[in-house]
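Q: A reviewer asked whether we had any structural model of the full assembly, not just the individual parts. We don't, so I'm hoping you can provide one. Inputs are below.
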Amino acid sequence: MEKKIIYLRDTDSAQQDRINDFFTLFSNELRDTNLIEQVQLVKIADIGLYEKGVTVKILPENIVYIGIKNNDVKKIIEETIKNNKIIKELLYEKKSKQIRAVLKNCGYIDPESMEDYIAAGGYKALVKVLTEMKPENVIDELKKSGLRGRGGAGYPTWMKWNFARGMNSLEKYVICNGDEGDPGAYMDRSVLEGDPHSVLEGMIIAGYTIGSSKGFFYIRAEYPLAVERVQKAIDQAAAAGLLGSNILGSNFNFELEIRLGAGAFVCGEETALIASIEGKRGTPHPRPPYPSVKGLWDKPTIINNVETLANIPQLIAGGGAKFASIGTEKSKGTKVFALTGKVKNSGLVEVPMGITLREIIFDIGGGILGNRDIKAIQTGGPSGGVIPREFLDTPVDYENLGKLGSIMGSGGMIAIDDTDCLVDLAKFYLKFCVDESCGKCAPCRLGGYQLLRILEKISEGNGELEDLNKLKKISYAMQKASLCGLGQSASNPVFSTIKYFEEEYRQHIVNKRCLAGKCKALVYFKILPQKCKKCGLCMKNCPSNAILGSREAGYVIDPQKCIKCGACFDICKFKAVMKE
Amino acid sequence: MKKLTKGDIEKVDPAKKDIGKNWIKVGMSTCGVAAGAGEVYLALLEESKKRNVEIDIRKCGCQGACSAEPLVEVNVEGLPKVLYGRVTKDVAITILERHVRNKKLLHDYIFEIN
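A: Here is a predicted structure for the entire assembly that you could use as a starting point for your response.
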């Protein structure tokens, strides 16, 4: 009999871990049946399933059983281990919700070795393009695939490339936008660090398609490891003749160079990015003319996001039709999200377009930390909005998220639970945009600042109902009149939080209370004498000596001294400290 | 380096990559390094030499399970490919001794994410 392995895991998080009991049950049973030498039992840390009871996975057959009870153990050993029969009642047919296309190589190959990338099938798309395809064929494949820009706006990639291809100019440029600045987003960094050659290959194909011989990687200086690995990749490719003149024996020449972003968020906006590469101050200017007509040094230029370019090699290798078979009607392919916030398994996920938010948060992310209630999901970073829990079953694609007042954005996804205050969240994102506004146009420079002032006023307890209207008015003006995407979208977090959580704003304004306890000025702590056991733990843990009293007389909080840190609330075992 | 030709790339069969090889891969992107992957990588290199454990130790990028970094993937003939998470220096040494040498999987560190 072939050696088997049984993985064990208790996937219920609400109760005590029963896995040691089951481990004993299984090992006793194996000993009784004299199978202990042929089977290895392993307790594992995560089985990829959540809230499904005690779960086992049997290798090498990959059989997964869920919701196992004590008396099932004998049956599993007897039927599945001994006689290779499957127990239908317990069987769980696990389908992975993730599809690895862009992240196919990330974490599997050595990013510093070109041989490893080639051994995994890399640069085959480039060979195909240079030997079998004309530029217009590449455009056709892109058109068939329905690939849209992964940077946020979702502009069809084939159109962008086709514009630039049609321009009559001796010099054209390809730029890879690696100025990823959204708080909580790091997809591009992972791709650049984990699989730099795939982006390189995408850029070389882009250069061939539009007729360009020079490309720039624009990477933010805060990603030193990404910069180092991309530079290594460029050097390796140049040494192997994949960059330079007459690439792979064709008459196509292409060179690549890295330019570092100095840390301005606005330089992720394409016209500001171009100014930055030209050595000018990184401020946007009005479009049109679009970069594909008049871009870097006034020459036709295409600017694509890292993830878009990383999609190109697999799209070309597999064909546009295959790419289009994944996704929804208008949004094709997969999207990488950086799942963060109050979710159990934070990390990078790659999912097909059209998957629901619930599947991402609960099936892949494993649910909310501490089994709390989910309140909303924030997508798209400072340019995006919040999506309340009622819409968790919405399929994720460009149109649906737009309809809900948020955006796909570059792919940040932050889970928000009931301990998060949405006024505070809106304030955080707005503060970010106010700090990052370049100051060139008035709506963004002044509007953002005024919005922030009003939000601060509300969170300090001085808000008036009229402020809600003011917020909406200024937000609207910013959306309509700002010069670039930063200003146009800076008010999105404010707009969408008011749209879905106006009640929470009213709590802050009318009742002067922040129920989540985030706005310090609107939280009050009180010790309830009837619940207090006079243990004195709160007094010991108070950092500002604001708790007075003794073990005999009981304790009170001095509101003058209280800094509202919540230490007493967290430490009290008897729930005698009240937060309101 | 010798210039590559079309044939060099075309003849590669990605399906044959890694068949029958024993290796350990350590996730060394910013996320992994921040969680301590550098230390784990060095420990694996040093200890495998010291203990005479023969295994190919490599670097790779981020697999995506950031909450479980540092991640170490191990492939040893006769055992399934396994992803270990929250690996420390000590765990790394246990992997060499228990998993690679004695062909027994470790308890409590395996992450089956996909």
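A: Points you may want to mention in the reply: Chain B touches chain A through 47 residues (CB under 8 Å). Helices of chain B lie at 6-10, 30-35, 37-50, 89-101.
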